Amino acid sequence: MGLDFPASRLTAPPRLSSFDLSWVVAAPFIALALRDPGLLDTGNFPNELAPGYQYALVTIVCALVAFRLFRVSDGVSHFFSVHDVLAVCAAVATTATSSGIILFIFTRLEGIPRSMPLIYALVLGSGMIFSRTLARVLYNEAWSEADKIAEEIWPQHMRHVILIGVDRFAATAIKLLDLQQPRTTRVVGALDVREAFHGRTIAGVKIIGHVDEIAEVFDEYAVHGVEIDEIWLADGATSLSHAGVERMRDWCAGRGLKFARVSEALNLAVRPNYSKPRANRTGAVVPGEYFKTKRLIDLAGASTLLILLLPLALLTACLVLFDVGAPVFFWQQRIGQNGRKFLLYKFRTYRAPFDKSGARIPGDLRLSRLGRAVRAARLDEIPQLLNVLVGDMSLIGPRPLLSADQPGDPRPRLSVKPGITGWAQINGGTFITPAQKDALDVWYIRHASLRLDTKIAVSTLLFTLVGEKINHTALEEAMSWSESNTGLPAMSLEHDPTSAEVDTLERRSA
């Protein structure tokens, strides 16, 4: 999964291509004509705007906003990818839903068939995807012709490779090599231990035999004048034993061939691992049985909240767009369950930390009054409902932290999914130390229940109205429990973080 761009690096405004703009205008009229040509009757115009034209006008306005919001036209059409498909689908769904809601509120969709939003979404989405697919096909044909010419010019520089084992990454590597100009490397064939794969192709490369037949394949290529230069082992070739890999390595060494895994051949080195020192805890914190059923509650709750909060989310997005500009979403890579990294989303409330020239903007100038109000009301947290739906988060649980903010032993809090709100948030929030937060979170993991989650949900609603405060009773109970069950000494409850510490915590959670 790719990462989004930092807000301060967005130097170009969202664009809308001429085709996309034309299709946004044409799509509602095409959809109306497909459903019933009579819907295009102008009626008593100009005294009254007919329902069909009301629908077209509202959908065009909603589409222009959604397409800019999801930056649909930012993708290069002839490099159309799955990521671009998702952006188009999200923009189309937002357009059809928001326009339907707006018209239902003001006109009850009078004169408009109830099937129109679905027909409109299909017309708008299919046109966007078809145009990009066509652009990619035409570009690939032009590229293939240029590639043939390049091969004729540079045949002496071509390396020939035999692939051992097949997997998805190896298939992608073959496609990558095919796009190089001038091409320097070609995978001429593949070998695999799975006989069911023999005779089939992977990314256009034939799987020509068993791994044990490497010597015969090598000699036969030589007979046909094809010199094999390297042997690549697919990273996911788990069916090949360690002894088999070593035999292959020795055989290549005897023939003077380079032997490497695909990732090594492409110089995709593994990032050096870094482990923070961990404190030793004598007690283990095991999540309760309740966590096995929480996923169903999360799905039902997040879906319901998304529907109920959609108007408020659209209003917040407009306020953010007016206050800090595009993009309206803020993202950070956080650590989730079992150490899995994911992107946490919020509505932006801080302006970008750097200006277009790269100069740092003072912190007190980045948060406006409007942004402070959005944060105080917790409206910036609404996009995290999507994190809940995809399974990265839970409605209630320990807040996800940055890598640098993890406690000495993060294993207890990482044993469950992080939450939008939690026990630590309603019992101190930004007014308690990280160690105290960790104690509250670990206490919650062990004592979680439907009753406790209900209490946290209600308390979250209350503190959005009255503000945060420290619950010394809950904090003392969590600290005492932590000392008794994890082996860590209870920390002093008298220490409150300084204003600088609070500011740091707020900015890290922004």
Question: Helices and strands in order, then pairings?
Answer:
Elements: H1 18-35, H2 51-69, H3 82-107, H4 116-153, E1 159-164, H5 168-178, E2 185-191, E3 201-202, E4 205-209, H6 214-223, E5 230-233, H7 242-255, E6 258-261, H8 262-265, H9 294-323, E7 329-335, E8 341-347, H10 369-376, H11 384-389, E9 394-396, E10 419-421, H12 423-426, H13 434-447, H14 450-466, H15 472-486, H16 499-508
Parallel strand pairs: 1-2, 1-5, 2-4, 5-6, 9-10
Antiparallel strand pairs: 3-4, 7-8
For this entry, give a set of tags:
single chain, 510 residues, alpha/beta, Rossmann fold, 3 domains, 16 helices, 10 strands, disordered C terminus
What does this structure look like?
It comes from Methylocystis heyeri. The protein is α/β, with parallel strands linked by helices and 510 residues long. The chain folds into three domains: 7-146, no CATH class; 155-265, NAD(P)-binding Rossmann-like Domain (Rossmann fold); 289-508, no CATH class. The protein is 48% helix and 9% strand. The longest helix is centred in the first third of the chain and has 38 residues, at 116-153. The protein is flat. The model is unreliable at 274-283 and 489-510 (pLDDT under 50).
Short characterization:
This protein is of the alpha/beta class.
Q: Which residues sit in consecutive blocks of at least 5 with pLDDT less than 50?
A: 274-283, 489-510
Q: What is the domain tally?
A: 3
Major sheet details: 6 strands, mixed
Distance between the terminal alpha carbons, to the nearest Å?
22 Å
Percent helix, as a range, is 40-55%
Helix segment tally: 16
Structural class of the helices, strands and pairings?
alpha/beta
Q: Output mean pLDDT.
A: 82
Q: Report the strand count.
A: 10
